[in-house]
Structure formats: structure tokens, C-alpha cells
Specification:
With about 120 residues, the chain is mainly beta. The chain is about 5% helix and about 45% strand. It has one helix spanning about 100; strands spanning about 5, 10, 20-25, 35-40, 45-50, 55-60, 65-70, 75-80, 90-95, 110-115. The strands form 2 sheets. The protein has a 6-stranded mixed sheet. The N and C termini lie far apart (about 40 Å). The mean pLDDT is about 95.
């Protein structure tokens, strides 16, 4: 069973940057597609970005060109570099396997809060 610990959130000004990290355990990390997801108050959780085991990336239209997902298989860690942040990026950010997302798994980590405000 996958276990994840997200970190790196915080308060950023519009136009600023943050880098999120997600430490993953409990699975053979290198063989799994991973994703970053976010949930704003009153909204459903949505996928922000995903990366396959071979490094192919996909982004939501709302973050394309501003966010970059990457992974370090040696460290069992997935990252989300967020640039040109906007107030609408404010949300709790989570990571999980794409498989769990597709299966609508109930497992989620604690997430990390990102607030974009001046």
C-alpha cells in the first residue's frame, strides 16, 4: 500500500514560485505513474499533473506552461515546481499514484497547503 508525505507548501505572492515534494513509500516507486492533485474549498479534487514511470508528463490546461512535474526514482520522490502562481492556484495539494486516482481510492496523504495572495 502506497504511503505519501507531501511538503513544501506555504504562502506565495501572485507571480511567485513554490516547489512541492512528495516522499513515497510502500510501493516499487519507479514502476508507478505519479500525479499531483489539488482541492480548493468547495471544489472537487482535480488532477494537476502526472508523470509516467518513463517520464512522460501531462498537465491540466490551467497549469500548462507554469508548473513542472518531475521525479527522482533514486529518492522515491516526486516534485511539482510551480511558477507564475495565481490566486486561483490556492488549494491543498496532494500526490498519489495515478492508479489510485483512477480507482477512486480513499487513500490520500495529509496534503500541503498552497496559498497565493498579496
Amino acid at each position: 500500500q502506497v504511503q505519501v508525505v507531501e511538503s513544501g507548501g506555504g504562502l506565495a505572492q501572485p507571480g511567485g514560485s513554490l516547489r512541492l515534494s512528495c516522499a513515497v513509500s510502500g510501493i516499487s516507486f519507479s514502476g508507478y505513474a505519479m500525479g499531483w492533485y489539488r482541492q480548493a474549498p468547495g471544489d472537487e479534487r482535480e488532477m494537476v499533473a502526472s508523470i509516467t514511470s518513463s517520464g512522460v508528463t501531462v498537465y491540466a490546461d490551467s497549469v500548462q506552461g507554469r508548473f513542472t512535474i518531475s521525479r527522482d526514482n533514486g529518492k522515491n520522490t516526486v516534485y511539482l515546481q510551480m511558477n507564475s502562481l495565481k490566486p486561483e492556484d490556492t488549494a491543498v495539494y496532494y500526490c498519489n499514484t495515478v492508479q489510485n486516482w483512477a480507482r477512486k481510492s480513499n487513500y490520500w496523504g495529509q496534503g500541503t497547503q498552497v496559498t497565493v495572495s498579496s
